[in-house]
Predict the structure.
Amino acid sequence: MKQTTWYKAAACTMLAAGLMLAPLATAGSQAYAAEAKQTAVQSQESSLWIDGKKLTLPKPVVKVNGVALAPMKELADALGAVSVLEVKSGAMILRYGSLTMSLAAGKKEAIVNGKTVYLATPAMLQNGVPYIPIRFVVEALGATVKWDAADNAIKIETWRNTDGEEIPEEGSALPDLPKLSSREIVDLYDGSVVMIMTNKAQGSGIAVGEDLILTNYHVMKDATSATAYDIFSDEMKVKGIVAYDETADLAIIRTEKPHELTPVETTFDFEAEKGDRVVAIGSPLGLQNTVSDGLISNHSYEAGVSWIQFNAPTDHGSSGGALFNEYGQFIGITSAGYDNSMADLNFAVSAFHASMLLGEVTDTMIKDAKFLAPSLPDSLAGAPLAEIRSLLKKEFSSVPTSSGVAELTKWEAARDAEGWLVLTANIDPLFYLYYAQAVEDELKMWTIQLGQEFHGMLPDDKIQVLISFERDYAFQPRGFAQGEVTLMEEGKWRVKHTVIDMQLQDQMYIRTKV
């Protein structure tokens, strides 16, 4: 759902990062690379063989303290595993069947299916290339590795070779998949996509089990009740949340009774290349199971999350909907986008993350499904001002908009002589100067939502929210009203004036100055 809450969990970081299209060699990866360079690394002329075939590597095998390491992607691909490098953290994730392995550059601990395993020699980044210890990874994936001194070669045998099966060439499966029309994709999956209504939001969801539905975390955040609706308008009451990943903005919810929807298969192996055709199904603006198509516009990574940028139109309420490729494979969960753009800049969380989250679900988690504790209390009656101030700083310190994130600082709460609860903060002055006019309506709606939240917690109070511009200048600015420009002790001039004034009790008044 493309509104304030829709941006908060996913789009804010992308907007702040300028569409997240920065080069992969980030400060984080450079730090890890620098750490790796300090290790005694020796390049080896050793060749790497898998099931009798020599593996072509872009960089040679290296040896650290007697342990051989190989470039992650090429080794993982040859073993039939999926690999991802989380650029900012330096984490290297491999997935093979039901096994998930996470290594980190420079760290001697690996996580294998949730368990910590000690490494004699850690993974590393060298010149931006992730290297992983060959023996550790190969044996964890159920294969064997031997050193052939005569041939100066590392030889790996997988279970496929034991069975006499050939390793399929990369991409060989895709030509066997027929391309489907949008109509054919709708015929396959329209009945698997639902509309979700909570007591806080409206979104979409995708059936992934007999009583499980995948959606966005922000659709379910702060909800205490929810109902899913299929294309026949049948109601499915939601029992609660089974599992969630706030960073990837994903949640798996359980219906009170098993539904009759056909689950969509989540996998780690799907085709999602830039320029490929895609079909989105969701409920924008509550128009249930609306279909749109477009292209994959780009790929990006942010905080370890893989995003698919696409231009199939979506809108408020599309969050949690399904994105399919032209082969009918489920490739992403529609999650974020830009308002006020002619370019249809929309984003889906890669289905890779959904597969990981679903793989962590246990019978106990399904049994114990419940709604998350809300981030705001039911009531603030009798709460001290310090508690209100703390809540404001924690929950209302940023305003996500289509032009970026407006940070709010210096939150204060006070009661004046007339009994009003006055909540005040300063908006980031540079954001205000550059973007206030463009996002005036968004700032206004965010303030209205804040007021409504506090009205719900303090229904008998008169509440005023004042958001101000404040900035110091070396010269005396002109054209301001009396009292808006003040000479400070250090000889600078402080400009401070109200940019949003919202007042609320039984009715609401709001004005903005941009």
Remarks:
- The first strand starts at residue 42 and ends at 43.
- Residues 1-39, 162-174 have pLDDT under 50 and may be disordered.
- The radius of gyration is 27 Å.
